[in-house]
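User: Reviewer 2 asked us to show a designed sequence for the structure in our supplementary figure. I'm pasting the structure tokens here. Could you produce the per-position amino acids so we can include them in the response letter?
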């Protein structure tokens, strides 16, 4: 489950770091980005953020579905334990009743 979330989160972290680096680079007043100027870094394009957002949304949806299924599994485990206790009680009662019936049969003979 962690892998599903970690990949898009790592991508988002990389994109945001690139964005912050591009916003914080020193450029002369009025200058625009230039390949010849090593002090400037390009900002990631909007499409990269959109793709990352879609991947994060899908990962979060999968995580939500996983949590729903996990809660269902936990509920079923609790139900199994309860039914197991009930079955054990029934088996114990049957053993007692069998013993009582055997006693009655012996007395009748």
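Assistant: Here is a per-position design you can include in the supplement:
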């Amino acid at each position: 489950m962690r892998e599903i979330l970690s990949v898009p989160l790592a991508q988002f972290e990389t994109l945001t770091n690139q964005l912050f680096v591009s916003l914080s680079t020193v450029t002369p007043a009025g200058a625009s980005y230039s390949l010849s100027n090593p002090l400037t870094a390009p900002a990631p394009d909007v499409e990269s953020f959109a793709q990352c957002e879609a991947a994060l949304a899908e990962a979060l949806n999968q995580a939500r579905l996983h949590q729903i299924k996990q809660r269902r599994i936990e509920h079923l485990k609790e139900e199994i334990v309860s039914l197991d206790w009930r079955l054990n009680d029934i088996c114990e009662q049957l053993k007692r009743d069998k013993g009582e019936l055997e006693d009655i049969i012996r007395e009748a003979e």
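For the response letter, you might also mention the following. The mean pLDDT is 88. Residues 46-108 form the longest helix (63 residues).
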